[in-house]
Amino acid sequence: MSVPTRLRLTTVNLDTPDPAALARFYVRLLGWEIKVEEADDVILHNVDGGVGLSFQRERAYVRPTWPAQPGRQQMSMHLEIGVEDLDAALAHALACGATLAEFQPQDDVRVCLDPDGHPFCLWLMH
To answer: Which architecture does CATH list for 8-59?
Structure first.
């Protein structure tokens, strides 16, 4: 399939009731920097290059449920974060304000929830 012009994924945007608070969680978690901060939008710069994260105020935000349950708000995406030391990464994520999800489907992955309930996976890079 041919693409008529170059397309490049630059940012993943997460809805949140408080963009500044959620951005600061990910700054602590990832060691990234705030690039733009406005009342309803915050953009993080990925210091390693590649795709960044942004946070957009959603006044009608509903916290997702993990794992999915019929009739409840389901996640529509999640972040995958590769780590070299799963235990150390989990301890760091928890210290930053994440919570460990009750359901853990794999031995080499830890599903965590950010302060707004977005799931993210810490996975052991082999």
So the answer is: Roll (3.10)
| CATH code that applies to domain 62-126 | 3.10.180.10
Are 18 and 61 in contact by the 8 Å Cβ rule? The answer is: no
Q: Model pTM greater than 0.70?
A: yes
Taking only the tens place, the pLDDT of each residue in 85-110 is 999 999 999 999 999 999 999 999 99
Strand order in the sheet with 33-37: 11-16, 52-57, 41-45, 33-37
Distances (CA, A) of 76 to 13, 62, 65, 68: 12, 12, 10, 10
CA–CA distance from 19 to each of 50, 82, 87, 107, 126 (Å)? 21, 24, 28, 32, 33
Q: Are the beta carbons of 110 and 104 closer than 8 angstroms?
A: yes
**3-state secondary structure at position 31:** coil
Query: What whole-number distance in Å separates Cα of residue 33 and Cα of residue 55?
Result: 13
